[in-house]
C-alpha cells in the first residue's frame, strides 16, 4: 500500500512540475513559445512522458485555466472578507480582480484568451468568481428586489469595464498608474452608485 501511495505522490509531483515548467516558459518566452518539447527539456524528461500526463498543449492550457480561476476566487474571497458592508466589499473585490490580473499577467491571459489562442472551453472553476460577485451585487441591490437577469447585467457591466481596461494594459503600451487608478475608481464607484438607484 505504501508503494502505491508513493507512486501516486510521484505522479502528482510530476504533473505539478509540468505545470510549473509551463508557467516559467510562458513568463520568459510568452504563450507562443510554449511547447511540449520545451516543457520536457525544462524538467529533463522526454516528451512522451509529458504526453502521459497531458494529451496536448491545449490540455495544459486548460489545467492552467482551472488553476487560475481557483487562485482568482481566493483573491476575491479574501477581498470580500476584508470589508464590512456590501458596497465596500464589491469595491475591494474588483480591486482584487485588477491586482490579480497584473500579479500573474500570463495566467490572466490564458484564463480570458487575451492574445492567446487556446481551447478556452469554459471550466467549472470559472463559475466561482461569478457567483461571489453576483451575490454581493444582489446584496447591494436588495432594496430593489433585483431579478437574476438585472444582477447578471450589472456584473457584466463591471466586467466589461474592468476587463477592458486590463486588456488595454496587457495588449497595448498601457496607461499610467495614475490614469488607471482614476478610471478604476470612477468606474467602480459609478457602477456601485447605480446599483442603489431603482430603475
TrEMBL record:
Regions recorded as binding DNA: 35-54
Organism: Flavobacterium kingsejongi
Top-level taxonomic group: Bacteria
KW Oxidoreductase (keyword) present: no
Alphabetical list of InterPro entries matching this protein: Homeodomain-like_sf, HTH-type_Tx_Regulator, HTH_TetR, MT1864/Rv1816-like_C, Tet_transcr_reg_TetR-rel_C_sf
Keyword DNA-binding recorded: yes
Name of the protein this chain belongs to: TetR family transcriptional regulator
Keywords carried by this UniProt record: DNA-binding, Transcription, Transcription regulation
Domain HTH tetR-type, chain residue ranges per copy: 12-72
A GO molecular function held by the record: DNA binding
